[in-house]
Amino acid sequence: MTTTLLHHDENIFPDSRTFNPERWIENARLERYLVSFSKGSRQCVGMNLAYAELFLWLGNVFRRFGSKEVRFTGDEGIIELVDTDITDVEIARDLLAPMVREGSKGVMIRFSL
Description:
Layout: H1 3-7, H2 22-26, H3 47-64, E1 65-66, E2 77-81, E3 91-94, E4 98-100, E5 109-112
């Protein structure tokens, strides 16, 4: 079973395609089903490095850039999605790793001052 199938199992994660980070706070038992980096003896050895890089990168981007709707003094510019919709990130096929539809450019963002 791939992680995609597990993470979108509606018996475990009701309404799995909805962005709802609170589900992890409200239900501690879900932690055992988070297998993005696998589990046990076959767990990814780079998991902690990947998390550290994600936290540093995202924190830096959102600290430096605002959006058209939310700006703070000191923001260097704005960040916005460009030519991106839900079909560019929806999982269309599973080839041992989740894949988007053929022809998708993925998530495209623009930084502007």
